[in-house]
Amino acid sequence: MTHTLAAVFDNRSDAERARTDLIGSGFNNTALSDSSADGASASAGATAAAPRDESLGDRIGNFFSNLFGDEDDERRVYEEAVHRGKAVLTVQADSEDEIERAADIVERYGPVDIDEYQNEWRASGWSGAETPRSGAQNLQGSAASQGAMQSASQQGGASAQGSMQYAAGAASQTIPVVEEALKVGKRIVQRGGLRIHQRVVSTPVSENVSLREEHVNVERHAVDRPVDPASVDAFQENTIELREMAEEAVVQKTARVVEEVVVSKDATQRQDQINETVRRTEVEVEQLGADDADADQYFRSHWTSNYAGSGGGYDDYAPAYRYGATMRSSSPDRSWDEAEPTLRSSWESSYPQSAWEKFKAAVRHGWDRVTS
User: Can you give the residue ranges of the DUF2382 domain (predicted)?
Assistant: First the structure.
């Protein structure tokens, strides 16, 4: 099945940039339709409509008839977008996954909310097929674009989604509820340890030892006695030696083990509590009554006037408008200054991804609408 995505842009340049990005990403079946008026305009008080180029209007009608088939309402909206100077970019793909990828690319270039403009155009009156004669119409695409669009329209109608249109065959839309699951694993990391160094240290020591020394002493004594006749060797030469002996210290060193250093590791188990945040999408179904529809139209108009050019869509600001209106209804006796701290705390708790300072003015507008 061929799926077709249609996106509306305020100006042709944004649509051209989106189309170039799509082609660079492998989407070759793209087409661009727009109509821009020339510099001339009717004078003040003129009531006649500008002349219409029938062949140009037919081309616009045929283009969207091929795209949407029998879906007259959808075809009329996109024809009206072109007649009012918008640019409509279409891209085709063979699967829903590919068309979703194309939608992500297109969103980078700021397509407008076609539903919002549709309500405004219905309120102000359709311009119909009135296209200025000097307007420039462009239908650019690959060789098989018209035939592929025809087959897509035959396979199913179109389902609107914000500023883009999916020409797929489904009659209903499935909104997935996505929830993150926490899975805790383990890995080994180095937390520390010991490094042991062994080195030699020299330490001076002292020991006392007793050493014996011999000394030869010579003493002369004066005597007077006759020589003993038995000493026949009295007049013989003789040499007598007496040696002096002494003790000296002999040092020997013996290595002995005096201490042992034992290094070991002990493993312990501990329980650790992991605190983490998991995300989950929630789908809220809200019944809209007549008053809610009026309020939504009022808030859309305010968003268009104040925030449309700053980035983001109406769906980003809608919760802030409704939050302000709801909180004001529940606290009719409190002023804004009194309630703001509580409103901010509750908002940051309910919408942690949406900064209070960014949406504060929208909340205040919803608050003031109920007040007034």
Answer: 175-285
Alpha carbon distance 35, 81 (integer Å): 9
Q: DSSP letter at 95?
A: S
State the Cα–Cα distance between residues 106 and 102, nearest whole angstrom.
Answer: 6
Dist CA 187 CA 288 (whole Å): 52
> At 320, which helix (H) or strand (E)?
helix 314-330
Three-state DSSP state, 222:
coil
Domain boundary among 166, 201, 225: 166
What does pTM read for this prediction? Answer: 0.33
User: Distances in Å between the alpha carbon of 97 and those of 92, 322, 334?
Assistant: 12, 33, 49
Backbone angles phi, psi at 7, to 5 degrees: -130, 145
Residues across the chain? 372
368 phi/psi in degrees, rounded to 5: -65, -30
Angle at the Cα of 3 (from 30 to 128), degrees rounded to 5? 65
The distance in angstroms from the start CA to the end CA of the chain is 52
Q: What is the pLDDT of residues 118-153, one digit of tens each?
A: 777 777 766 644 433 333 333 333 333 333 333 333
Residues contacting 288, CB < 8 A, separation 6+: 296
Q: Domain limits at 74?
A: 3-166
Question: Strands, E, within 38-166: which ranges?
Answer: 87-93, 140-141, 159-161, 164-166
Digit-coded pLDDT (tens) for 163-175: 454 444 445 678 8
* Per-residue pLDDT tens digits for 19-56: 998 898 888 888 877 664 332 222 233 333 334 444 44
Residues 11 and 147 in one domain: yes
